[in-house]
Amino acid sequence: MYPFKTLFTTSLVFLVLISKAQSVRQPDTTKTNAAKIVAVEMEASYPGGNDAWTKYLEKNLNSNVPNKNKAPIGKYTVIVRFIVDKDGSVSNVQPETNFGFGMEDEVIRVLERSGKWTAATKNGQPLRAYRRQPITFLLTTPDFEITTAEPYTLYANTDNEISVTVKKMKPADISIFVEGGKSTATGEGKFIVRANKPGRVTIQLVNNKKDDKEIGLASFEVKAK
């Protein structure tokens, strides 16, 4: 298990970035159940705005969950979708991502216990509205670092340059293996990585002087070029 720490202590190694809730399509009540856009005067929001929402998460989100479940280092943007009813209650909280390691479950738990929100309004009347909430977990470790042009992000079918630094190891002793792609060492701890398709890949760091003993794992988002 990596020695992660949390944003909500004085040592900032494990980081949680909070994004504002987003409005999404409203449910249609027609027999076809097709989605439609409903214009509102005021979007549903957490009481006190984004600052209050951040403070709520700082107090209630268990940011140690990915560490406890041994998630590889990397950036994970969990997205959940939910309904804010006319009375401000939160319901139908559903994940749109599936990273696992307890992350979606933890975000759902915190949302379901967030109390009454301020309902959306139209023509001065409260409106039942969908919301979409992204929360990004950025996991790091002091044992090693992988540097890319965009943190923990690669592009499919592209030569991605990465640099690997491992504590107390010579760059020449480091090798990497890419699940769902391939890598080529270019010297001094630098590599060219190609991922086969968009999605996510795992990069395994090994010590090639000790029979490829695993140093650690890192998870990367792979975007289409």
Describe the protein's architecture and organization.
- There is one protein chain.
- With 225 residues, the chain is mainly beta.
- The protein is built from three helices and 15 strands.
- The protein has two domains: 15-139, no CATH class; 144-223, Immunoglobulin-like.
- The longest helix has 12 residues, at 49-60.
- The model is unreliable at 1-19 and 25-37 (pLDDT under 50).
Report low-confidence residues grouped into runs of 5 or more: 1-19, 25-37
Helical segment count: 3
- The separation of the N and C termini measures 33 Å
| Average pLDDT taken over every residue | 83
Task: Write down the overall geometry.
Answer: elongated
Please indicate the count of domains.
Answer: 2
**Could you say which structural class the secondary elements and strand pairing correspond to?**
mainly beta
How is the biggest beta sheet arranged? 9 strands, mixed
What portion of the residues fall into strands of 2 or more residues?
Answer: 35-45%
Give the SSE string.
EEHHEEHEEEEEEEEEEE
Residues in helix, %: 10-25%
| Number of DSSP strand runs | 15
Give the radius of gyration: 21 Å
Question: What's the topology here?
Answer:
Layout: E1 15-18, E2 22-23, H1 49-60, H2 65-68, E3 73-84, E4 90-95, H3 103-112, E5 120-122, E6 125-127, E7 129-139, E8 144-147, E9 153-155, E10 160-166, E11 174-179, E12 181-187, E13 190-195, E14 199-207, E15 213-223
Parallel strand pairs: 3-15, 9-15
Antiparallel strand pairs: 1-7, 2-7, 3-4, 3-7, 5-6, 8-10, 10-13, 11-14, 12-13, 14-15
